[in-house]
Design goal:
This protein is an alpha/beta fold and 721 residues long. The protein has 29 helices and 22 strands. Helix 2 (35-45) links the parallel strand 1 and strand 2 (51-54). Helix 2 packs parallel to helix 6, helix 3 packs parallel to helix 4 and helix 7 (164-179) packs across helix 27. The chain is elongated and about 105 Å long. Helices cover 44% and strands 18% of the residues. It has 5 domains: 23-142, Rossmann fold (3-Layer(aba) Sandwich); 163-263 and 406-427, no CATH class; 270-390, Toxin ADP-ribosyltransferase, Chain A, domain 1 (Alpha-Beta Complex), CATH 3.90.176.10; 505-597, Toxin ADP-ribosyltransferase, Chain A, domain 1; 619-720, Tetratricopeptide repeat domain (Serine Threonine Protein Phosphatase 5, Tetratricopeptide repeat, Alpha Horseshoe). The protein has a 7-stranded mixed β-sheet. A 5-stranded parallel β-sheet has the order 2-1-3-4-5. Strands 15-20-21-17 form a 4-stranded mixed β-sheet.
Length: 721
């Protein structure tokens, strides 16, 4: 049975699935449901919205252990249950602080003081709230995970199967695409609805959301970003978790921040600082990235005051896997062309902090890492870079050129996501645009073609055929026989969706041998020793030579070892209509009745016409074969034939550039973004020999383009600090 052409536009709307905050508050107390505790919940949720309550130690421990290491858990325990659970959870990366709320302060301090993550032992609920609120102002600076991508350079930087450089490139292209995609009222309405669902029951944040709806204006965006409210918490969380759809919904506000940072852009070079707690493994990964380039996938907050940044850091704990680090950054506004940075202290909760905010996607060079014995912290020195300073310059330029210079649309976003291998998301945005366009919009045909390609990549060939039929019908209304009006057109194209018939069109993927002798065919069945699970069937075929225009059939008895058999052989790929199946009690066999069809008689007529038109009517080559296999979802085979042709072509063959581009797109579909970048570099170099800096001759060209193939890197693509 065929599937529907259009997927449901069902982005996750369940607030529990959205993870709209990084921080989570867990309260373990066997008397948690007292009135005082319930009243306190609202005040705690004003600080950290996600609040989970437990009365059982094992259930609580299981929940904490199941949290991602990129989440940050603040825990409240009572004295008795605290003694049971703390030894099991205090070493977990996601647990950043523990508070003991009890009646016996002195008694519980004796065991609590042994654990650095226990920040306080309190007996009053008001004191508990004050402690958690004060600590959270610092935690949201130093404890929030920092999501980065790394661009590796040098002769040993690129056999990483994760595609180090490719993810770096695609993150930059995706940001660029989203920032040029105009936001709509429908997007804002959807965002507000998701936030209201996430903060349901939180009167403090629901009041903030109401105020935001009523009073927000672009010139107030920095005030909202620095304010302790849902806006900052949610935006930062979705950027750090790379929740693409939520970033899509936030894109208008991200653009507002970019414009405000540009308006307030720093006028001189600055030396800036940021304190951060990271794991030992994360520090070691960064140590191996000296000299490499890093893009930060979120807004990046820093200070001009190194002492203030240092004061936020916790003292190192020998039992803890965390390491305090201080980022020391040199930033020159001359290089901040598309990714500005500016002082936002006037809007900050810490007006004396001299807070400098860097734009989402800012790129830094990691210059050095060393240990400061004086301050007992690791110093990570970085320099702000522009997109024009490093080896990725021309690849970024090339890929952004594919987007154009003006506004982007949902189709552009869908195509970027498709290149990244995120087919489900790409399909959702194509569908979203499809629903927004009027019935006569010229873009509809292209959108259905895009959806057809997505369906073929995900193995849904039925849906792919349907979308291609629709695309063809829209591009050439006369091409589909029988489409006289909209109703007839919808009926014709929608057959594969609506029909529930047992009749199907079948193509035989081999030569098909038959006989004109009914009894002889039955005799073969009765003489066979079939397994019990198999049923005997007799195909009964009506074949008219008038329809066998491209797939002939003929009597080949005179060539056969059994000339009396009257053997008739059908050509490979012959198409039959399955007319009916019934059981013959006399002969105890199933009779399958079929009729030979031509390519012009069935629902696939126009799709076959369209796809054959894509191949052309002359000789095909290995690139044609590769593209057909690509559409079938056989990406490995397609790559093999592209590569085979590559070896056969002369160095100056005009087909080389197209082949490199094909290989680049294939690599991105299989998730090898690094290789994708390399092939795009090769394609660009052939189209414009002067585009890649430093390519002076064939040897240098080969050396530059082959870096990612020859090098070995143990660097990970994504590091979550």
């Amino acid at each position: 049975m065929a599937t529907a052409i259009l997927p449901s536009d069902d982005f996750l709307t369940n607030a529990n699935d959205q993870q709209l905050e990084i921080f989570c508050l867990i309260w373990l107390d066997d008397n948690i449901n007292t009135k005082d505790n319930r009243d306190t919940e609202q005040k705690l949720r004003a600080v950290i919205n996600r609040l989970e309550k437990f009365q059982d130690v094992k259930q609580c421990q299981k929940y904490i252990e199941e949290r991602s290491q990129s989440e940050r858990v603040v825990t409240i325990v009572n004295g008795r249950l605290g003694r049971e659970i703390v030894t099991s959870i205090y070493k977990l990366r996601q647990v950043i602080s523990i508070y003991v709320y009890c009646t016996d302060k002195e008694g519980n301090k004796k065991w609590a003081d042994k654990f650095a993550k226990i920040k306080a032992v309190v007996v009053e609920l008001d004191e508990l709230i004050v402690q958690i609120k004060a600590a959270h102002k610092i935690q949201k600076i130093v404890e929030e995970p920092l999501s980065i991508n790394i661009f590796t350079t040098g002769s040993d930087a690129g056999k990483s199967t994760g595609g180090v450089n490719g993810k770096f490139v695609f993150s930059q292209v995706l940001i660029d695409c989203l920032l040029r995609l105009k936001s709509t009222q429908a997007d804002i309405k959807e965002l507000i609805k998701l936030c209201k669902n996430a903060y349901e029951g939180n009167s403090f944040e629901l009041s903030n959301i109401h105020e935001f709806q009523k009073d927000y204006s672009p010139d107030k965006v920095l005030w909202w970003y620095t304010r302790e409210s849902f806006f900052y918490k949610t935006l930062n969380a979705v950027l750090r978790t790379e929740n693409i759809h939520m970033i899509f919904l936030f894109r208008g506000f991200i653009s507002d921040i970019q414009r405000q940072l540009k308006y307030h852009q720093a006028k001189k070079s600055l030396r800036l600082y940021r304190g951060q707690m990271i794991s030992r493994d994360e520090l070691e990964n960064l140590e191996q990235c000296r000299g490499q380039f890093i893009s930060v996938n979120s807004f990046f907050s820093t200070s001009t005051d190194d002492k203030l940044a240092l004061s936020f850091l916790n003292a190192p704990d020998n039992t803890d896997n965390l390491k305090p680090v201080l980022f020391e950054i040199v930033a020159d506004p001359k290089v901040a062309i598309t990714k500005p940075f500016a002082e936002i202290s006037a809007y900050s909760d810490f007006p004396g902090e001299s807070e400098i905010l860097f734009m989402l996607g800012s790129i830094f060079r990691l210059d050095n890492i060393d240990y400061s014995n004086d301050n007992q912290v690791w110093i990570i020195r970085m320099t702000l870079c522009s997109e024009n300073e490093h080896e990725l310059k021309n690849v970024l330029m090339y890929m952004k050129q594919q987007l154009g210079n003006g506004e982007t649309n949902l189709r552009t976003l869908g195509r970027v996501l498709s290149e990244m291998g995120k087919f489900d998301l790409a399909e959702q945005y194509f569908t979203r645009l499809l629903k927004e366009l009027p019935p006569n919009d010229p873009l509809l045909g292209d959108l259905y073609k895009d959806l057809g390609k997505i369906a073929s990549h995900t193995g849904d060939y039925d849906k792919s055929v349907q979308c291609l039929e629709k695309s063809l019908a829209l591009k050439n209304s006369s091409a589909l026989t029988g489409i006289l009006n909209d109703d007839e057109g919808s009926h014709s194209i929608g057959k594969l969706i609506e029909r529930k018939s047992y009749l199907e069109t079948d193509m035989v993927n081999s030569f098909f041998s038959t006989s004109t002798d009914y009894r002889r065919a039955l005799k073969f069945l009765k003489g066979s020793n079939a397994a019990e699970s198999l049923e005997p069937v007799l195909f009964e075929i009506v074949a008219d030579p008038k329809v066998a225009t491209t797939k002939p059939f003929a009597d080949i008895s005179k060539f056969s070892q059994y000339p009396g058999e009257s053997e008739v052989l059908f050509m490979l790929g012959s198409i039959f209509r399955l007319d009916g199946i019934d059981y013959n009690n006399v002969n105890q066999v199933w009779i399958i009745r079929m009729t030979l069809c031509s390519e012009t008689e069935h629902d696939l007529k126009n799709v076959l016409m369209y796809m054959k038109h894509e191949l052309g009517s002359g000789e095909t080559n290995l690139r044609t074969l590769g593209k057909v296999l690509w559409q079938m979802g056989k990406l490995d085979l397609a790559e093999q034939y592209f590569t085979r042709l590559l070896k056969e072509l002369s160095p100056n063959n005009p087909l080389l550039g197209k082949l490199y581009k094909d290989l680049g797109e294939l690599a991105s579909l299989t998730g090898d973004y690094d290789k994708s970048v390399q092939w795009h570099q090769k394609s660009l170099a052939l189209k414009n020999p002067n585009a890649l800096v430093g390519i002076l001759n064939d040897d240098e060209h080969r050396k530059f383009s082959g870096k990612c193939i020859e090098r070995k890197s143990h660097l990970e693509t994504d590091i979550i600090i």
